[in-house]
Design brief:
236 residues; mainly alpha; two-stranded antiparallel ribbon; 4% strand; globular
Amino acid sequence: MSEARDPPSVAPIALVGLFVTALVTAQLVSAKLISITLPLVGVALSMPGGTLAYAATYFASDCISELYGRRFARRVVNVGFAMNLVMLGLVWLTIRSPAAAGSIDPGTFATVLGAGTNIVLGSLCAYLVSQNWDVIAFHRIREWTDGEALWLRNVGSTATSQLIDTVIFTVVAFALAPALLDIGAGLGAEVIVGLVVGQYVAKLSIAVLDTPLVYAAVGWLRARERGESAGSPSVD
């Protein structure tokens, strides 16, 4: 019987955990449309409720790409997609299960947690394209800059992938899917454009603001892992 191995460093586990947690949270809350007023200018931006949570996935994936490489990052993206399906399956299984006495109203529960089919379809289509593009763009920029300018690949990859994600998600979830699935009229072009602009401005702002956090996280985790490697006992 082989010896049990020590668990891997906590860093990749924590980053993958953040990625998946932010991803499934965004999926659960995106059915609600929210409005955020920009300070100073007073402009109100409309966006799905999962915008802020979904933006956190790009922070996690950029840290993962920088620290552990393209192959591992793409695996995380694909695992995240599978976990998204697991979450949806569990939510719908709970919705379909009979309610016990004293339970919250089943209709209210289904309305709050049961993301509409159009939201699910838009989210999954956008996720597959944008998250894989984020990994590809991050490493292309890294190659072009010979491994320098972390800020450029963080902002550049996120800015382009978030634009792709925002357009695909909004158009599919709120315009195409309702018509194709015959679940009601989709939103008008003016509302769709407003949602795309609102989401993208919010996501791009977060991408710029989280750049110092990516630098700090990558630097701290690299130093921590070097320390753990230096302190590990040799194996005879």
